[in-house]
Each structure stands twice: as C-alpha cells, then as structure tokens.
C-alpha cells in the first residue's frame, strides 16, 4: 500500500476521540539532531496551553511559520524524537513530490478552537 492509497474503513469513534484544535505558532527553531530535516515548533493552543512538536516542514522558511495558524492533534501523548519531547501532531497534506503543505484554518479562528 502506498501513502496515496485509501486507508481501510474505521470506526468514527476513533476519529472523534482525537482532540484537534487551532494553534498559533510562537517559536520555530532548527532541529539538527533529527534524522530527517525538521524544525522544533512551539504553538499556543489556547486553554490546552503551549505545546511543542518536531515537524518535517522545512519547505517553509522559519519566518513564514512564526505567528501562523495551524491545525494540530493535541491528545496523542508525548513522543521522544532525538532527545526532544514532541507533544502534538501538526497536520498537513503531502503533494506528489512529498512536500508538506500545512493545513490552516480561516483567519477568524483562534488558538484553542476545536476542529470537529
């Protein structure tokens, strides 16, 4: 199965158990310790708080990411990546060349808004 192939059907409960929210990127730093090119990103998710993640979104310049609204899954638990604790999953799509395009809410959205 390639990454473009449809995934098998799943129970809607699996999807609805994910806490998906709007976040605003506060900080972006290089992450040279990561195996694949990545950034360390801190984002404000309103009442959830400020969380950090490692993201392979180096197709964006750091200044393009700062203050950007993004969509993140905030309840997947922490994961260690090259000694760094990643606390949320930033969502994006992959184009045919494997480049990531971040999902973004409308400009009227606010950090912490729930995606449903």
From TrEMBL:
Pfam families hit by this protein: tRNA_bind
Species this chain originates from: Kitasatospora phosalacinea
Annotated GO MF terms: tRNA binding
InterPro entries reported in the protein's UniProt record: NA-bd_OB-fold, tRNA-bd_dom, Tyrosine-tRNA_ligase_regulator
Keywords: RNA-binding, tRNA-binding
PROSITE patterns: TRBD
Domain TRNA-binding residue range list: 14-116
CDD domains in the cross-refs: tRNA_bind_CsaA
Name used for this protein in its record: Molecular chaperone
């Amino acid at each position: 199965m390639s990454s473009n192939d449809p995934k098998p059907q799943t129970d809607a409960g699996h999807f609805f158990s994910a806490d998906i929210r709007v976040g605003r990127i506060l900080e972006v730093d290089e992450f040279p310790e990561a195996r694949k090119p990545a950034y360390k990103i801190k984002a404000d998710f309103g009442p959830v708080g400020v969380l950090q993640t490692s993201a392979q979104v180096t197709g964006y310049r750091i200044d393009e990411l700062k203050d950007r609204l993004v969509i993140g899954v905030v309840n997947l638990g922490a994961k260690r990546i090259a000694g760094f604790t990643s606390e949320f999953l930033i969502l994006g799509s992959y184009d045919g060349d494997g480049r990531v395009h971040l999902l973004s809410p409308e400009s009227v959205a606010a950090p912490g808004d729930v995606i449903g």
